[in-house]
Amino acid sequence: MIEVRSLVKRYGRHLAVDHLDFTVEDGQIFGFLGPNGAGKSTTMNIMTGYIGATEGDVLVDGHSIYQEPELVKRSIGYLPEQPPLYLDMTVEEYLGFAAGLKRVPRGERREQVDHVMEMTGIFGVRGRLIRNLSKGYKQRVGLSQALLGFPKVLILDEPTVGLDPKQILEIRTLVRELAKSHTVILSSHILSEIQEMCDHLLIIHHGKKVAAGAPAQLEWELSGVPALELTVRAPETAARAALTGLTGLRGVEGVPCAEEGCCSLRLEQENGCDLRGAVSAACAGAGVPLLELRRDVMTLEDIFLRLTAEDPPAPEREDGPVEEEEKPEEEEAGEP
Amino acid sequence: MIAIYKRELSSYFNSMIGYVFIAAMVFFTGIYFMAYNIFNGMPDFSYCLMSMMSILMFTVPILTMKSMAEERRSRTDQLLLTAPVPLWAVVVGKYLAMVTVFLIPVALEAFCPLIIAANGEAHLLSDYATLLAFFLMGCVFIAIGMFLSSLTESQIIAAVGTFAVLLLLFLWEDLMSFLPSALSNVLSVFAFRTVFYNFAQYQVFDLSGLILYLSMAVLFVFLTIQTLLRRRWN
Questions:
Q1: How far is A69 from chain B (nearest CA, A)?
Q2: From 3.30.70.3190, 3.40.50.300, 3.40.50.11750, 3.30.365.10, which CATH number describes the A225-296 domain?
Q3: Pick from A11, A102, A329: which is nearest to B83 by CB?
Q4: Which ipTM score applies to this complex?
C-alpha cells in the first residue's frame, strides 16, 4: 500500500503540487490523469525519491521514502517520462548495469535480465546499441529496467507517449499483464487510455486533487442530475408552451436542430427528478409529436474537461508558464 | 557503487574521451621526456612532470566535463537517484572511475625513471615521490572538475569552468602578492603549485602538502554530493 500524505512541492513561488493526498491499494492499476503540467511527473518524481517534497511524506508499506530511502526504492520500479537510457551501451549491457544498481544478487542477474527481455519483447535486439533503437524499443528497454529486481510497485510516467498505435496496444497489454503481480501507477493525459486500463483514477489539476475513484463511480458521482434533450415536430414556442407547468423542471433552453419544422430543447431537471414520463405525457396532451427524448449523461471525458477547465486562483499562475512545472531544472541550464 | 564504477569506466573506453585523455597525457610526457631527459641528459624525471602540470590543466577538464553534466542532460540521473543506492556511492563511484583512467598514464610515466636508471644516474626516490604528488594533484583536479560538472547541464561550460578554476589555482601564488599581507597569508594555504614544486624542483617530501591535496580532493567530492542533494530539495 502506498500512502501519499499532504504532499507539497514548491519551486520558488510556484506551487507545483498542492497538498496532494491519496492512497494506492496493493494490486491496483492506479491512473494519474491531468492536463500537461498538472504536476503528474513532479508527484511521481517525489514518490520515487528523485526529488524531495517541500512538505508531506510518501509511505510504501508504512516505510517513509525519506527515513528509509533504500528500502523503499528497492520496492519501486520507475519508468520516467523520458526513459533514462545510456545511449552508448547495448541493451544487454544496460540492463546488466541496472540490475547491479538495483542490487540484484550477482548470480541471478543474467537470468533476470533475460527474463525481463522476454517479457518486454526486446530479446531480439539485446546486442544492439540503445542509440540505434526506435522509440518504441527504447520505451521497452526503459520498462525492462523498471522491472528488474521485480519490485512490488511499478511507477510508469506516460508509458505510451510518442508510440504508434500498435506499440501502444502492446504496452497496454504488457501493463495489464504486469498488474497481475504488481501494483501499477501510471500517468497519462489521454483519458481513454486511463479509462481502459485503470481500476482507480485520480484527476489532478494545478497540483491539486480534483477527483478520485473508480472510473464508473466517478461518472456516476460527478455527472449529477442528467439533463434531458428532446426533439419535437413543432415550432419552439408551441413546444415550450406544452412543457410549462411541469413540476421539477428547472429550465428550458433551445438547442440548434437540423431537421425542417422541428425544434430541440434541453431541459434541466431538479435534483432527484426524472421527468421523462411527464415530458412525453405533456407532449402527447398538447398534440406535439415527440420525435426524440434522451438523457444527457456526462461521460468521463466531459467530467475531465469540466474539472480541468476552471482556472485556478490567479496568484499561483503568475509565476511562469505551466509547462515549466514538469521540467523545473531546465530553468538554470546553460546550453553552449 | 561497484556497478556505477564499472559502467563509468567502460563508458570512458566506449567513447573517445578515455583514449584521447590517455593519448594526450602520454604524448606530452613523451615530448618532455625526450627534450629534458633524453636529449639534454637530465637525470630527474621530476622536471618532466613539472611541465606536465600545465598539460594536466588542459586534459583534466576533458575527462571530467561529462561526468555529472551529461547524466543530467540525458536524464539518466533519474535512474541513478531512484535506485536503492546512496547518493555518495554514485558520486564516489564516478570519481574513482575517473581516477582510474588517470592512473593509466601515471602508471606509464612510472616507467620513465626506470629508463633513466637503465642508462645512468637516476634519482628514483625523488622521482617517484614527485609522481605520487603529481597523481594526488590530478585527483584534486578531477574532484574540482567533477564538482563543476555537477553545477551545469552543459559539458562545454563544465570544461571551460574547470579550466578557469585550475588556471586560477596555477596562478594562485602570483595573485597572492597583489593582496594585503593579512589576507594573502591566509589564502596562500591553497598554494598548489608550491607544494608540487617542493617535490619536483627542490626534492622535498612535503607531507603537509600531500595532506592539503588529499583534503582538497575530499572537499570537492563532498561538495559534489552536496550540490546534488541541494538540487533535490530546492
A1: 7
A2: 3.30.70.3190
A3: A102
A4: 0.87
